[in-house]
Amino acid sequence: MEYTIVNFEQHSVIPVETFLHRIFPAGLYESDKNRIVRERIFKPRKDCEELALTLPVDWEAVKDSSDRNWRMQLQGWTMFHPVMNFFDSYEDKNEIVDYFLAIARDWYGQYKNDPDNVTTSRMPSSYAWYDMSVGFRALILAFMINRIGFFKIPLSEADRDILRCLAEKHIANLSSEETFSLNNHGIFQIHGLLALLTVLGADETDDNVGYALARMEELVSSQFDASGIHLEHSPHYHFYVLSTFLAVIKSGWYARSDLIEGRINQAQTKKKWLVDPLKRPVCVGDSILTVQDSVDFSGENFQESFCISDFHESGYGIVRSAWHKDPNNSSMLFLTAAYHSKSHKHRDCMSFEWFESGEKIICDSGKYGYRSDRYRNYFLSARAHNSVEIEGFDILKIKPYGSALNSVEQVSENIFRFNANLDYPAIKHSRDIYFKPGCWVVVVDDLDFVRERGFTQWFHLDKRFHISSLLERSLYCLDSSGNEIYIDCLNGSVSPIIHYGDDKNLQGFISENDYCFSPALALGFKGFGKSEKLVTALSLTEDNREDALAFVAHHIEPELLKKTVILNERSSKSILPNIQHQVYLDASAFSRAFGERTNRVYIDNVPLTFYSSFSSECRKVILMLPGATKRSKGIYDFQRHSWANDFKDFDIISFSDPSIRDDNNISIGWFQNSEKAYGIDALIKFVQLLIERDYYKPEDITIFGSSAGGFAGLKLANELPKCPVIAINPQLYLERYTPSHFLGMLESCYPGLDRNQVVKKYSTRLSVNLDGGARESPVCIFQNVHDESHLLRHLKPMINRYKGDITEFNFGSGSVVSKTGLNIVYYDDPELGHSPPNKETTLKMIALVTQSMYE
């Protein structure tokens, strides 16, 4: 079909954003606009030097052909993008049109005889008919035709002929099925085609208009999946393409299509998933850290603690803190396991980024840019990402697999699991990532090859980190603020390799902006074989490291339990001054070391941390359980441990409450710990371990605590009937305690459940219900009569419900403790009230019970 350019005057002004994929306000060029036009300046990117165009233009960039993006933009006439922004306000519009016509004549003179259906590769020798170049030129042609007509700018017949020929040649090229690209470049092709058709007066009955509409529907469907995720492996391009489509829709030329607007609306809702808590795109694929101000985290569900993605078909898996949470206190892990096409795809299958507390921890190496050089090759390579580089394996030479992501799920309290896998005849790679926000990441790579191959598991740290120490396969790094990260590879057959800004071997770089890169730590674990399992823990503190290794030992790699002593000997951390600290990833490895120690024993994912003073001469022990702690002391509070020398005939174990953690600010937790890892159960198992090892007989283990410690001790009484239990002013019904403390505990230990849900589901955890008939040793509750709240709201109701013998007497009366029943001993201290009695009085209370046991 032929189109003629006549009756320009009939055209109205079409908004500039209809033609431009990016809008820069005209005022941005206010000081330079005359110079841009008169000196004919071409500067497509900030990092480029400006070029004053002279005729004839070197359209093929013979002098410098390495920058592919620059060449594409030259052929796409993007020297007119700034001009289009200020065209309507520019005083001498004839001056602009003269510039435009000069460029148009020069280009047409060189390419007018080319076939209309020229197609090119992704890296062509000439960009004259490159898909995106043609689309850009078509939009600029349409804009200029529209403005020339509206502002009644006179044209000679020769120039009118040039514009007609250019328009028809571009319409012919863009309406050819052979030249169409089903990727984001195709958007500019089809929109450029429809722009030309519109300004030339074509209506919806025109075959080319119908073709353009159908192609744009196809493009939207191929660019964004049904959930609205962009399918070109780059969160940055999600925003780029979405903004392009929004401009496309604003034209009004696609109003007949419900599909286009519906899919774009879906893409709008997914923007928030593809940025970190600072609203910067996750840097996988061709992405850069440009803050996306259009993202809105407000108005989301404030009840959630963490958000989990549910669009696995895209190949993106995400776990992040609730949307409303302050970025400086937020966590996020983003896994990419997608290969839909080669567009913007890096060799980054199953790579991930990890964000914590306002900073990246583990980073993708970034985009770099499209200049064809050794650095571009590096940033595209498998070794530039947080995945496994496999010898002889290039994913981009294999047919796209779509999504390799199988699941993202919560597997236990605050622990999430990502699973993805690649399954080829010669190479199989399955990856599990376990994520405990704010604490650690554990990466498990199962590799299975038909023949032996070399492989390297790579991790790229944020550029602020530097190495503090390296011991075998354990790396310890710090940043300038003292933030830590521990990286432990638990596979003994691999060797560590470290690079930092290594230009010779091209490793250890981070690129956050186009053509800019910085040195950063790259850590690899290198091996060779047919079948390997690589387990690597990345932890933010030493405590988190211990927790991560305990998780690995109990859930992934049981062999690690045998290495407990070796791992612990590397720890230099002390909780108490001048006292050695020992950690046991498995309770079965615990041994009673004589002398003073602090210890951590993991039992069913509960970290029991305690002070111990063991003597070879003692066969009896007192277990001291903590009441409320002062958070100024830190998270470990071994209450009354300094009294160890006052007990000549007893060993001492003083526990800290595992409910008190760095990630909360509670001061009292009653050993609740968490919904799926109940601290009281772990305590019971530890006491049973002491008995099974024959360290102590049950009747020689005295359990002591006041207030919250008394509650915990009484919770052990039914399961340990032969152990004497002493409690001072204990809580017995936690719901009746100070609401702020009770609700604080619920929020920390039972996140995601409201008060009613916890009370209904875990009522037995929240109250003491003693079984008097099962007891073989005394339970003794000391109650200050001036602590009226605990006396009236806790003790009296329990006495009324108790079934069994009760002995009640006053402290100091000379009465004897009953060995098998419940003893209530009242004391009178009006000054202290609920506060525990002084050391002298407390020792007398303990002696009253222990002496009765051994008379």
Question: How would you explain this protein's 3D organization?
Answer:
The chain is of the alpha+beta class and 855 residues long. The protein folds into four domains: 8-179, no CATH class; 182-272, no CATH class; 306-553, Beta-galactosidase, Chain A, domain 5, CATH 2.70.98.70; 568-853, Alpha/Beta hydrolase fold, catalytic domain (Rossmann fold, 3-Layer(aba) Sandwich). Strands 9, 11, 12, 13, 14, 15, 16, 17, 18 and 21 form a ten-stranded antiparallel β-sheet that branches. Strand 12 (415-423) and strand 13 form a beta hairpin. The longest helix is centred in the N-terminal third of the chain and has 20 residues, at 131-150. The radius of gyration is 36 Å and the shape is elongated. Residues 308-486 form the Heparinase II/III-like C-terminal domain. Keywords: Lyase, Periplasm, Signal. This is Heparinase II/III family protein. It is found in: Periplasm. InterPro entries: AB_hydrolase_fold, Chondroitin_lyas, Hepar_II_III_C, Hepar_II_III_N.
Characteristic key phrases:
28% helix, alpha+beta, Beta-galactosidase, Chain A, domain 5, ten-stranded antiparallel β-sheet, 855 residues, ten-stranded mixed β-sheet
Number of domains: 4
* Poorly predicted ranges: 564-572
Largest sheet: 10 strands, antiparallel
CATH topology of the largest domain: Rossmann fold
The portion of residues forming beta strands comes to 15-25%
Overall strand count: 33
**Which of globular, elongated, flat, extended, rod-shaped describes the shape?**
elongated
User: What fraction, in percent, of the residue positions are helical?
Assistant: 25-40%
Radius of gyration: 36 Å
The CATH homologous superfamily of the largest domain corresponds to Alpha/Beta hydrolase fold, catalytic domain
Total helical segments: 19
